[in-house]
């Protein structure tokens, strides 16, 4: 059995986090999102993967190489222009000669589901019951047969959605030849699936676990779920006087200094300094080379590699890019006064608590305040005592 993973897209909805990396390389529990998917595929018993790459392909190739580090053979196909899922799959024609899994690269799935799906007859689509089906392609099912597929309907006919997990055989490539350009200017895989549905020839497989990572705030939920599964490990140094409640993974050459309190499920990368007297709360992932210093509280957040949050800071429910620096006293709010759901650029996060999305190389002066639901573009410079609200483009300067 082989597997094709679509990993060519930029992920424009993830901006500014994707300014310097493709979406599939965004970190979850200190590993690229795509690595969690590759590991699930290998655990399902599949040893050959074709990655369709495009935007940021160098980062993908450098991280995964030939796949030997993960016990799998990886080859690459380039989709130079992102013209849709049908076009991406069509790029692998001639490389796949038998039944194969096809997966979208921006999700988390369970290896046991993939292994079970591989025992089914092709074509088969993985489906999942969602509490907000209007955000996805909705499927209707009769028994195990898919009877309809409708993209992002305001009045969905069911709660079952297309999860972007498929079992195909080489016949799919013939179907792709007739797929027309859609109104969005893309070649859509769903048009080929419509032919199977009309023939009564597309079955459904109900996934037990599935997490979509389509928007920045989805990173927090996926990260929390992955951290809850991890086993505690300590390859660094924990000084006397540190309190740890819950599971902690501490990387090589990292030090947690005295007086620090860590609770919940947390991961700290390699070469980090935590504390003294820091407070790290549950579901927090801190990347390699970070400094979380004295009297800093970080809660339910993802901090990319190389970021410094060194004195008297609060970061709540936020995603912080790489190589950022927070001046003393700078804080990120995460709760509206009316306790309403936080929205960003008119899109609901679905979260009552959400702080900010901060790109790479953002520098803050002392005593800055970042309001709920803010987005700060990469390479922005925020002067001392500034209030940040709304969305700032890359390289914004606030004096």
TrEMBL record:
Enzyme Commission (EC) number: 2.3.1.157, 2.7.7.23
CDD domains the UniProt entry points to: LbH_G1P_TT_C_like (cd05636), NTP_transferase (cd04181)
GO molecular function terms listed in the Swiss-Prot or TrEMBL record: glucosamine-1-phosphate N-acetyltransferase activity; UDP-N-acetylglucosamine diphosphorylase activity
GO biological process: UDP-N-acetylglucosamine biosynthetic process
Catalytic activities: alpha-D-glucosamine 1-phosphate + acetyl-CoA = N-acetyl-alpha-D-glucosamine 1-phosphate + CoA + H(+); N-acetyl-alpha-D-glucosamine 1-phosphate + UTP + H(+) = UDP-N-acetyl-alpha-D-glucosamine + diphosphate
Keywords linked to the UniProt accession: Acyltransferase, Multifunctional enzyme, Nucleotidyltransferase, Transferase
Assigned protein family: In the N-terminal section; belongs to the N-acetylglucosamine-1-phosphate uridyltransferase family. In the C-terminal section; belongs to the transferase hexapeptide repeat family.
Protein name: Bifunctional protein GlmU
Organism the protein comes from: Methanofollis tationis
Biological classification of the source: Archaea, Methanobacteriati, Methanobacteriota, Stenosarchaea group, Methanomicrobia
């Amino acid at each position: 059995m082989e597997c094709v993973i679509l990993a060519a897209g930029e992920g424009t909805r993830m901006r500014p986090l994707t300014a310097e990396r493709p979406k599939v390389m965004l970190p979850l529990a200190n590993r690229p999102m795509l690595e969690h998917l590759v590991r699930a595929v290998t655990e399902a018993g599949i040893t050959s993967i074709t990655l369709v790459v495009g935007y940021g392909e160098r980062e993908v190739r450098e991280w995964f190489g030939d796949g030997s580090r993960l016990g799998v053979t990886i080859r690459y196909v380039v989709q130079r222009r992102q013209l849709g899922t049908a076009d991406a799959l069509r790029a692998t024609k001639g490389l796949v000669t038998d039944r194969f899994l096809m997966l979208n690269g921006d999700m988390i799935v369970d290896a046991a589901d993939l292994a079970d799906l591989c025992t089914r007859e092709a074509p088969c689509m993985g489906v999942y019951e969602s509490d907000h089906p209007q955000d996805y392609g909705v499927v209707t099912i009769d028994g195990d047969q898919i009877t309809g597929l409708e993209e992002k309907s305001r009045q969905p006919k069911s709660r079952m959605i297309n999860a972007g997990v498929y079992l195909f055989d080489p016949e799919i490539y013939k179907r792709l030849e007739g797929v027309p350009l859609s109104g969005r200017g893309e070649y859509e895989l769903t048009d080929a699936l419509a032919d199977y549905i009309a023939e009564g020839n597309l079955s459904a497989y109900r996934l037990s676990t599935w997490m979509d990572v389509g928007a920045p705030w989805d990173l927090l939920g996926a990260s929390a779920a992955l951290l809850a599964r991890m086993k505690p490990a300590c390859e660094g140094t924990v000084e006397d006087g540190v309190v740890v409640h819950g599971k902690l993974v501490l990387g090589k050459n990292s030090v947690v200094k005295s007086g620090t309190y860590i609770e919940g499920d947390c991961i700290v990368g390699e070469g980090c300094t935590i504390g003294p007297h820091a407070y790290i709360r549950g579901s927090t992932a801190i990347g390699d080379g970070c400094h979380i210093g004295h009297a800093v509280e970080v809660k339910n957040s993802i901090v990319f590699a190389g970021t410094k949050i060194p004195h008297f800071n609060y970061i709540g429910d936020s995603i912080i890019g790489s190589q950022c620096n927070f001046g003393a006293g700078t804080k990120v709010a995460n709760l509206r006064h009316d306790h309403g759901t936080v929205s960003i650029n008119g899109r609901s996060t679905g979260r009552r608590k959400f702080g900010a999305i901060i790109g790479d190389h953002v520098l803050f002066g002392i005593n800055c305040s970042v309001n709920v639901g803010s987005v700060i573009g990469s390479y922005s410079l925020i002067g001392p005592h500034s209030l940040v609200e709304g969305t700032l483009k890359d390289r914004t300067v606030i004096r």
